[in-house]
Amino acid sequence: SAANSPSAPAPPRAPASVRVSAPGKINVSLLVGPPRPDGYHGVASVYLAVSLFEEVHATATDTDGVTVTVQSDGALHVPVAGIPLGPDNLAARAAQALAAHTGHPAAVHLHIIKRVPVAGGMGGGSADAAAALVACNALWNTGLSNEELAGIAAGLGADVPFSLLGGAAVGLGVGDRLAPALSETPLHWVLAASDSGLSTPAVYGALDALRAEQQIQVPEPEAADPSILAAVRSGNARDLAAVMSNDLQDAALALAPELAGLLRAGERLGALAGMVSGSGPTIAFLTADTDAAAELETALRAEGHRALAVLGPVPGARLLPAVAG
Ligand code: ATP
């Protein structure tokens, strides 16, 4: 048989197709500074990767160029119609950036399985970019280290390096200067999706306007709140519920007032606390344990909301086993 015949070892062959998953995130703390001259805002963020994963399937193609398809999947029933499929797609930009960095031809098809709400404040597009970097690095045998991939990731968007890293981390700068935070005890959350997408720049703009109106001056944030970090490290949900906060929440509520009712509903139905995730409009409710999260998921769904129990921290972007066949 072929298995017994003497032959030279097979040369290492790049796979024809690879699958990678990458998590969405919530910010359990988000301090936002004043607008900088470059238009960005300095932040101090405590990121938590949660068990809502994007998947990117990368397949080698014969012709140069990146093509993209997107499929909606999962309990939050994410509408995907508005996502760009051309060169503006964040996964396509990631593949192009890796090709430019390595000199490898960008001949690839990317199929995105979308579970993270689009423009939802959970970094879903960033997760697609992180997944595409890991996928193309494997598909093309380009062998970049995690550090090198993180360098490319930072050029793609503030949340892309965190989706590569996963776990829990403090993010400074625009969120891309990351320091991992150790956390061994998972926290249990329920995500509630909203139909109103919020544009991240619009929410930052609304925050600047609110602060100007109220004559509030804030310093450039230089560190994450130690009490929030301590609660994440210990996995103590009650401690975290008392201190978690998001400077963008009032701005998101000003742009999407219906979120206030959703926040109240979750707290009435048993959440320890609820908060807008990042720039919103997704709401993250913290619960005491798995059972409490399952109960809150059921109760929110009974009231007609799209809700999903998740936990975090979870790992960052990683290769999934090849599918047989
Ligand atoms: P963040 O929290 O990282 O600021 P977000 O989670 O609020 O962002 P995303 O879903 O990551 O929002 O993307 C915002 C916009 O980016 C979308 O409205 C869409 O037009 C564009 N976009 C480009 N590529 C993608 C992608 N792969 N998935 C989703 N949106 C994408």
Low-confidence stretches: none
Average predicted confidence as pLDDT: 94
SSE run:
EEEHEHHHEEEHHHEHHEEHEE
Q: What is the fold named in CATH at topology level of the largest domain?
A: Ribosomal Protein S5, domain 2
Q: Give the assembly state of these chains.
A: single chain
Give the C-level CATH assignment of the largest domain: Alpha Beta
Strand content: 25-35%
User: Separation of termini?
Assistant: 21 Å
**Biggest sheet: strands, sense, closure?**
8 strands, mixed
Got a strand count? 12
The molecules bound to the chains, other than polymers, are:
adenosine-5'-triphosphate
Count of folded domains? 2
CATH architecture of the largest domain: 2-Layer Sandwich
EC number: 2.7.1.148
InterPro entries: GHMP_kinase_C_dom (IPR013750), GHMP_kinase_C_sf (IPR036554), GHMP_kinase_N_dom (IPR006204), IspE (IPR004424), Ribosomal_Su5_D2-typ_SF (IPR020568), Ribsml_uS5_D2-typ_fold_subgr (IPR014721)
Domain GHMP kinase C-terminal: 229-304
Family: Belongs to the GHMP kinase family. IspE subfamily.
Describe the protein.
Keywords: ATP-binding, Isoprene biosynthesis, Kinase, Nucleotide-binding, Transferase. This is 4-diphosphocytidyl-2-C-methyl-D-erythritol kinase. One of its GO terms (biological process) is terpenoid biosynthetic process. Its EC number is 2.7.1.148. Catalyzes the phosphorylation of the position 2 hydroxy group of 4-diphosphocytidyl-2C-methyl-D-erythritol. This protein has helices at 90-102, 124-139, 146-156, 160-165, 200-213, 226-234, 237-243, 249-255, 258-268, 290-302, and strands spanning 17-35, 41-60, 65-72, 107-114, 168-172, 177-181, 187-193, 245-246, 273-276, 283-287, 306-312, 318-320. The protein is of the alpha+beta class and 325 residues long. The chain folds into two domains: 17-180, Ribosomal Protein S5, domain 2, CATH 3.30.230; 187-312, Alpha-Beta Plaits (2-Layer Sandwich). Strands 1, 2, 3, 4, 5, 6, 8 and 12 form an eight-stranded mixed sheet that branches. A four-stranded antiparallel sheet has the order 9-10-7-11, sandwiched between helices. α1 packs parallel to α2 (124-139), α5 crosses α8 (249-255) and α6 (226-234) packs antiparallel against α7 (237-243). It is globular, with a radius of gyration of 21 Å. The two termini are 21 Å apart. The model has no long low-confidence stretch (mean pLDDT 94). The protein binds adenosine-5'-triphosphate. Adenosine-5'-triphosphate binds next to α1 and α2.
